[in-house]
UniProtKB/TrEMBL annotation, chain A:
Pfam families: Acyl-CoA_dh_1, Acyl-CoA_dh_M, Acyl-CoA_dh_N. Residues 234-388 form the Acyl-CoA dehydrogenase/oxidase C-terminal domain. Keywords: FAD, Flavoprotein, Oxidoreductase. It comes from the Bacteria. GO terms for cellular component: plasma membrane. The keyword Flavoprotein applies. Belongs to the acyl-CoA dehydrogenase family. Residues 128-221 form the Acyl-CoA oxidase/dehydrogenase middle domain. Its cofactor is FAD. This is Acyl-CoA dehydrogenase. It comes from Alicyclobacillus ferrooxydans. Residues 7-124 form the Acyl-CoA dehydrogenase/oxidase N-terminal domain.
Automatic annotation (TrEMBL), chain B:
Residues 6-118 form the Acyl-CoA dehydrogenase/oxidase N-terminal domain. It comes from the Bacteria. The keyword Flavoprotein applies. Residues 178-191 have a biased composition (Low complexity). GO terms for molecular function: acyl-CoA dehydrogenase activity; flavin adenine dinucleotide binding. Its cofactor is FAD. Residues 173-204 are annotated as: Disordered. This is Acyl-CoA dehydrogenase. Keywords: FAD, Flavoprotein, Oxidoreductase. It comes from Alicyclobacillus ferrooxydans. Pfam families: Acyl-CoA_dh_1, Acyl-CoA_dh_N. The lineage of its organism: Bacteria, Bacillati, Bacillota, Bacilli, Bacillales. Residues 256-392 form the Acyl-CoA dehydrogenase/oxidase C-terminal domain. PANTHER family: ACYL-COA DEHYDROGENASE, ACYL-COA DEHYDROGENASE FADE28.
Length: 396, 406
């Protein structure tokens, strides 16, 4: 048992800290707020990614020959930890950098690598991932969006939903049905779609957090070509799974955000008073904070235990589902409490928020984190069936 | 970074597991409950042969010189079979107490006795007022010339029926006078405890506590069994009536017992917590197995999400508890600055998680889980008995908060 970093890992950490110190966007350290509306917001984020790219910090886990740093697993975790620590702006092409680029490097054709990979890292082309549909949420293999071959083209019709960044994306990693004759996990194919074509329309979704990160995408005779297929026709499910395997540090970002939120919550409870007593000294509040201390530390340490296993086996295990469950559920609970502690002021939002809106914003966002990327209920099935070996749900 | 037990630590687990299984696993506790402690005695002897009682004894005194992190797999395994007896108190409290505070002679005699299995210790702490606070101790030790007179009634002594000796904290008179003042010298700066665990509890009531050790067969010692819903614990009431002891029976500095206790009790709580996660893992393994095989409505009940999700919820709590407990033991072993918060938060979390797991285990087994024949109840009873062992959840939470500076 050893919690220390090697000298190489410390160097990595210090290099990143120094770089962030010099390169966080001007004014970011003070307000930490993104421009409220597009196109300023998107431009801000594109600029940030470009800066990361120029500094060599856009895709740390990517192989060096593709412009990455070839970071080890633990270095990638350190990267996430530092980014959370300084509350760095989000990386706009996160889906491209985190999953699509590495997938193309792994199983893409030479032409696909040449055409796409570099622009993913530089942020010249923003990517989204077209998976969920109105009738295929938790049951992803139920997708109906279909692609039909006509000559040298594939004609795509259907609808995707909850697609992050689709409104600004240049390209989409799309899962579509190409054969309806067999079992539902068969007959799917992964395409790389040009979002800037007449048959593609995106509509932003107004989320309960008052943000517009998600979209619907409507495909009406949209076109893809043979060279846009990833893997083989009919192998889409396998490709989709390959893509998920590149989430090799799992919920690193969330787990570090939890620690930061916990520390902020304690700090917050020291500034609030009730009947002249600081909330941190109120026995009822204190009990709750101790519980959050144990659970947030527990989530972090559990993440480290699973990470140790990943480092030893070389691939992320199904235990990632446990980390996701622990983090997302605890986050919702804890952020809700931070709002609740504000008493009568708790519903105040945006400019009128009691302190600032970040507790309210964080709480409202947290309700999506137990749904996105596999709902809590699906994750529990995964743990039950794949970790504990309990009987599978009845599925059709 | 490597947050896992080492190969050597896992190997020790294997041998302990094998040893316990050879002796019948849970049957050791079952036969102990039925008034037959022979199987337990034999098991203890086997564990001694494996070197379990020498693991954390310094090399200078014939031990292996490792720390409590190396004992984690041992306690996980003893917890898994609800091992009765005094292994925990002996190894996780007496050994560190004597190794850190004992005289050279005590280390020589007592530690070698622990190592070879001849000596086992129980903690005679709680008095009839039920308080865990050493400040509430009423039992006394008075010096008269070279003789120390001990009078105390201690109750709910875990392993009291089995220990060969007792560790007894008592209120001691001021060594520098023969009067009856209870005020110890608050300026004796011998404390090695620079941790933040004292947390505002140091007032006059805590002065003048001294740790004694007393042989079970010493004149004036009476041990009476207590009935408990957890009959695996060997609970006893121990009366020390005009017991006369020599200086050799005083551990550490006269009047300095509080700090010694605050230090070593963390080792003990870390060990208790390790037992809890071992027991919890057993409980969850068995309920998982049951859910795979028990058929109702034409299918294994583990297919129903009401059942499987409940098992997963408890499993997640086990994962969390295990992480906290491993870390707490590491923090104690390495003297990490967050060790007090780590130990007490692990203890309170593991305690409540164990109770929930043991309780759900009964529920998910249905009617059969409510029977004496099934082991389910033994785990629930152990969970409840350990819940308030040398502190309550509320105490542990307060200690955590205080260590965090709240």
């Amino acid at each position: 048992m050893d919690f220390s970093l090697t000298s190489a890992e410390r160097e990595f950490q210090h290099a990143l800290r120094d770089w962030l110190e010099q390169n966080l966007p001007a004014g970011w350290k003070g307000s930490r707020s993104l421009p409220k509306t597009d196109p300023e917001r998107t431009q801000f984020l594109r600029d940030w990614q470009r800066r990361l790219y120029d500094g060599g910090w856009a895709g740390v886990a990517w192989p060096k020959e593709y412009g990455g740093r070839g970071a080890t697993l633990l270095e990638e975790v350190i990267y996430q930890e530092e980014m959370v620590r300084v509350k760095a702006p989000p990386v706009i092409n996160i889906i491209g950098i985190g999953m699509i680029g590495p997938t193309l490097i792994q199983i893409g054709t030479e032409a696909q690598k040449r055409r796409y990979v570099h622009k993913i890292l530089s942020g010249e082309e923003i990517w989204c991932q077209g998976y969920s549909e109105p009738g295929a949420g938790s049951d992803l293999a139920a997708i109906q969006t279909h692609a039909v071959k006509q000559g040298d083209k594939w004609i795509i019709n259907g609808q995707k939903v909850w697609t992050s960044y689709a409104h600004i994306a240049d390209r989409c990693f799309l899962l579509a049905r190409t054969d309806r004759s067999g079992a539902k996990h068969d007959g799917m194919t992964a395409f790389l779609i040009d979002m800037h074509q007449p048959g593609v329309e995106t509509r932003p979704i107004h989320q309960m957090s008052d943000h517009y990160d998600f979209n619907e995408i409507f495909f009406t005779d949209a076109v893809a070509y043979e060279e846009d297929i990833v893997g083989e026709v009919g192998e889409g499910w396998k490709v989709a799974v390959t893509l998920l395997m590149h989430e090799r540090v799992g919920v690193a970002r969330q787990v570090f955000s939890l620690q930061r939120d916990f520390n902020d919550l304690v700090g917050f409870s020291k500034t609030l008073t009730r009947q002249g007593v600081r909330l941190v000294e109120n026995p009822v509040v204190k009990k709750r904070l101790v519980d959050y201390y144990a659970r947030s530390r527990g989530a972090l340490l559990t993440y480290y235990r699973h990470l140790t296993q990943t480092m030893k086996t070389g691939h992320p295990g199904v235990e990632g589902s446990m980390d996701k469950l622990l983090c997302s559920e605890l986050g919702k609970d804890m952020l809700g409490y931070a709002v609740s502690l504000q008493g009568a002021h708790s519903p105040l939002w945006h400019e009128d928020a009691y302190v600032n809106s970040s507790w309210q914003d964080g709480y409202l966002e947290s309700l999506g984190l137990t749904i996105a990327g596999g709902t809590t209920e699906i994750q529990k099935n995964v743990v039950a069936e794949r970790v504990l070996g309990l009987p599978k749900d009845i599925k059709h | 970074m490597d947050f896992s037990l080492s190969k050597e630590q896992e190997m020790l687990r294997q041998s302990v597991q094998k040893c316990l299984q050879n002796q019948g696993g849970i049957e050791i506790a079952r036969s102990y409950m039925d008034g037959e402690p022979q199987r337990l005695k034999k098991t203890y002897g086997e564990l001694v042969q494996l070197g379990v009682t020498s693991v954390n004894i310094p090399e200078a005194y014939g031990g292996v010189g490792l720390s409590n992190i190396d004992l984690v797999p041992v306690f996980e395994e003893t917890g898994r079979v609800l091992l009765p007896g005094t292994l925990r108190e002996t190894v996780a409290f007496a050994t560190p107490l004597i190794a850190r505070y004992g005289s050279a002679e005590q280390k020589e005699e007592l530690l070698s006795g622990i190592a070879n299995g001849q000596m086992t210790f129980a903690l005679a702490v709680v008095e009839t007022n039920g308080s865990y606070q050493l400040g509430d101790i009423e039992g006394t030790a008075r010096r008269q010339g070279d003789v120390i007179h001990l009078d105390a009634v201690k109750t709910v002594v875990h392993g009291g029926m089995d220990a060969t000796a007792f560790l007894v904290p008592v209120r001691s008179d001021d060594a520098s006078s023969d009067g009856d003042s209870l005020n110890g010298d608050s300026s004796n700066g011998d404390s090695s405890n620079d941790d933040s665990s004292k947390g505002g509890s140091s007032n006059g009531d805590h002065e003048g506590i001294t740790w004694l050790w007393v042989e079970r067969d010493h004149d004036g010692v009476t041990v009476e069994p207590l009935q408990s819903f957890d009959a695996t614990l060997g609970l006893a009431k121990v009366t020390f009536s005009s017991v006369q002891l020599d200086e050799q029976h005083v551990i550490g500095k006269w009047g300095n017992g509080l700090e010694m206790c605050e230090d070593c009790v963390q080792d003990l709580h870390a060990a208790v917590s390790a037992e809890m996660i071992g027991a919890m893992e057993h409980v969850l393994d068995s309920v998982t197995e049951y859910a795979k095989t028990r058929v109702q409505f034409g299918q294994p009940i583990g297919r129903f999400q009401a059942v499987k999700h409940r098992i997963v919820d408890r499993r997640l709590e086990l994962e969390t508890a295990k992480s906290l407990v491993y870390y707490a033991n590491w923090a104690v072993a390495s003297g990490s600055s967050d060790k007090t918060a780590a130990v007490y938060s692990a203890r309170s979390y593991a305690t409540e998680a164990f109770i929930r797991a043991a309780s759900d285990n009964i529920q998910l087994h249905g009617g059969i889980g409510f029977t004496w024949e099934m082991d389910c109840h033994l785990y629930l009873k152990r969970a409840r008995a350990l819940e308030n062992y040398l502190g309550s959840v509320q105490d542990f939470e307060e200690q955590t908060a205080s260590a965090l500076g709240w």
